[in-house]
What does this fold into?
Amino acid sequence: MTRGRRRLLIICLIVLLAMLGWAFVTALKPALQRTIVITTGADNGIYRGFADRYAPILKREGITLDIRASSGSVENYQRLTNPASEYEVGFIQSGTTSPKETDHLETIAAVSYEPIWVFYRGDTIVNRLAQLRGKKVAIGVPGSGLLNVSLVLLGYSGITRDNTTLLEMDALKAYQALENGQLDAAFFIGRPDAAIQKTLLNSDLKLMSFAQAEALAQKFPSLSKIIFPRASTSIVNDLPRADVTLLAATALLVSKDSLHPALDYLLLDAAKTVHGGDDYFTPLGTFPNLNTEEFPISDESVRYFKSGRPFLQRYLPFWLASLIERRLLILLPFMALLIGLLQALPRMVEARMKRRLVVWYREIKSLEDEIWKNAQPAPTQIAKWRDEIESIDAHASQIRIPHRYFQDVYALKQAIGVVRDRISQAAAKMNESTSGGRT
It folds into this structure.
């Protein structure tokens, strides 16, 4: 191998190694993510409560949950669908958005029912939303999932802003307005153990039982019919004094589809710990689940509910399992290519060396075949053969080849010697034939 070719080979190897190094660093960087930015809801809301309980669970795995407040489900959806935003995960209430294929969002899990409560004043029992026509009703705040659901449910009952005073205000203001007589009814959303729900359930306000819950759930499939059992608020005071039929949205834990899959598993573990118990509406183990069609279900969630966390994540620290599972596997094709090239390189060099010798072997073979075919060569023919074999010998002697291929060069020399002997034999035979003719 000439010095120039050797230099070219070294340059190619350096470029290949540099490309592999760049690929390794690029793949490694996202595998070591340590922070998840989550968009929740109001600081004292149900979603914030969920996130606050997730945070210490994730912290044990070395992951910081960066919790950001929002006005609610609608704003969470808007944040997550913005590809340039830093938000990666959030809670979205079922039925509050119209997902599109271009959203690039995935459901990690449905994590909890979100009961919809309608509290009202007055002596008349209200069990149909149509009875609120012409009254003053609070329906939630802009950006909240409650506002959207309230308007849809009221719309089914023929109630609009044209025939009823619909006011947008938060839960605390709505409760105070009810107590002060400034409102006739108000929509609320949240678990019974939330602070505002406890206050409402222990007040003198009346709680509406949805007599048309089945029909409304059929029209609005994102909602479910649930029962708040008698005496759930207080057994001593027997509150409520009868089973109450409610409608409930479902809280969905949603992420961008670019979220690292290993983080999906950690979030699922946190959700299982936080939401896996029983409550007023569901038996043990009902949540989290995948009973939702709002957004596509992530592949990691499907695998998690089928067989749990991946093998490596069960026995290795998160960062190491993540690196091995996701990033080193990406590099395997590059590593295989490198190993293949390193293995093939000696064979390529050897093949190149042998090709340089094969050229002269072909010349020798062609010359030998010509000698065997010509039984009575003329002196000029023999002289030509001798010139050819000496030319081949001279070129063979000038071949520059690594020491370990010298045996091939000497094999070529032996072949040259064999053909040279054939020429000598043909010349001797010609001389004998010429001498015999003279005698």
In short: The chain has 13 helices and ten strands. The longest helix spans residues 318-373.
